[in-house]
Design goal:
The chain is built from 3 helices and no strands. It has helices at 3-29, 34-54, 62-85. It starts with a helix and ends with a helix.
């Protein structure tokens, strides 16, 4: 429906949300499990590349793509919170 632009905006939205979660996790583990903190940092670098690839499409997406942005962020946040419960 929105083609490449929608896909890249969705990628940006998901990766931005994931990066926020990873930063929280890294902060909680700092000083307690440095090996895991280093692993998270490696994952963050890869996720940043994905986010940056879609960044151009997040600047001024318009109403329809803004809805996709909000939906992707909300769904990703929900999936993260759900995974923390199990």
């Amino acid at each position: 429906m929105f083609g490449r632009r929608g896909i890249l905006l969705c990628t940006y939205s998901v990766e931005s949300t994931v990066l926020r979660h990873l930063a929280e996790q890294r902060g909680q583990l700092a000083g307690r499990d440095e090996e895991f903190v280093a692993l998270i940092a490696d994952i963050e670098r890869e996720e940043q590349e994905h986010r940056d690839h879609g960044r151009a499409f997040a600047a001024a997406p318009g109403p329809a793509l803004s809805a996709i942005d909000m939906l992707a962020r909300t769904a990703t946040e929900f999936a993260i919170r759900l995974s923390l419960r199990f």
